Amino acid sequence: MSTKINIEKYLKWEYWPTSMFYIPNLPYAFYLAFKAKHATFFSAANPAIKSSGNGTESKYETIQLVPEKFRPKSILVKANSDISDIIKRIKEAKIEFPFIVKPDIGFRGLLVKKIDSNEALKKYVISYPIDIIIQEFLDYENECGVFYHRNPNENEGRISSVTLKKFLFVIGDGKTPLKELILNDNRAKLYFDLFKSIHKEKLDEIPEKHKKVKLSIIGNHSKGTQFINGNHLISKKLTKTFNELSHAIDGWYYGRVDLKYNNFSDLENGINYKILEINGIIAEPTHIYDTENFTYLHALKEIRSHWKSLFQISTLNHKTRNIPYKSVINFVNEMLELRNYISSIKRLQ
Fold it and tell me: Which residue has the higher pLDDT, 136 or 198?
């Protein structure tokens, strides 16, 4: 079964490794660096965020840039903190069970978990002695990613990508165990190893007829979430909302905002939504992974288009606002440290 699933993943380009999307675009990246006369020109795009959001930034510090009404209640917990102090801080922040715990530095849903009890929290803290964020669980109906960019000398920006996120679920028939329901679903079966771990105590249970069983609550492609192109929802209203957000965060011009909302009309009008994360220069226009509406070559073209905008924003910041480019040595060292850090916490899983 495992071999068959792996073959199916290789045949679908949305599951291909990241390198397949970036190595073909390297010549264009070198061209932009040549034009900018600096290899790390992109580090000037978002002066409000460490290294403009290359993945080494603190997610907690970045989310604090967001106006309070649009961010979830969160606390930063340093590695090896005393569990009783953590519980005390959670109560002081008025964060209730269940809540989300995730690494302060991380990506692609790595070690993101929903915590339902003090016992589960204690187990997480002991298992993963790293800086973490404890964040209220947002029970909104929908989640999406919005890619926004604005030239620093202009008042209005543009939205280039809206990604709607469809969480994987199965429907019970009153006869079939959860394990078989997962294996019978064309998409869910590709993530069986993941769901086997998440639902290990329920795999042999038989869901009631018509019962909807959500397989994952993390809106990440690596966790099974399906990315759907929502660019038809880009509008003047939505752009206005994100123009206001960009101006409220001095020094953020480029990146993808992942957020929760109940209905898209509210989001368009800038009300009743919460931002989970702001991703900077390493953010992807994730609508490209909708393989029903995009080809692989189209996806590569979209990435180049976003890099062109990144070039324009970064060089303008450098020339007109004297934002320095990070030295190549410092940038490379940061990325090496990030690689070592990610490797170390992966070993903890």
Answer: 136
Residue 162 φ/ψ, nearest 5 degrees: -125, 120
Decide if pLDDT at 1 tops 80.
no
Q: Check: CB of residue 348 under 8 Å from CB of residue 127.
A: yes
Which residues make Cβ contacts (< 8 Å) with residue 142, sequence separation at least 6? 164, 165, 260, 261, 262, 263, 264
**Residues facing residue 227 across a β-bridge:** 165
Closest by CA to 264, choosing from 176, 163, 340, 154, is: 163
Burial category of 42 from C-beta neighbours within 10 Å (exposed 0-12, middle 13-18, buried 19 and up): buried
Write down the residue that tokens 């790293």 correspond to. Answer: 130
Q: Are 71 and 63 in contact (CB under 8 A)?
A: yes
Q: Which of 236, 310, 315 is nearest to 279 (CA)?
A: 310
Tell the CATH superfamily of the 74-137 domain. Answer: ATP-grasp fold, A domain (3.30.1490.20)
Q: List, for residues 293-313, the tens digit of each pLDDT value.
A: 999 999 999 999 999 999 999
Domain boundaries, the chain: 8-72+140-166+226-346, 74-137, 173-212
Rounded to the nearest angstrom, the gap between the alpha carbon of residue 26 and the centroid of all alpha carbons in its chain is 23
Omega before 324 within 30 of 0, i.e. cis: no
pLDDT at site 197: 85
Q: Give the pTM.
A: 0.94
CA angle, corner 111, sides to 138 and 15, nearest 5? Answer: 95
Q: Give the strand pairing for 169-171 and 273-279.
A: unpaired
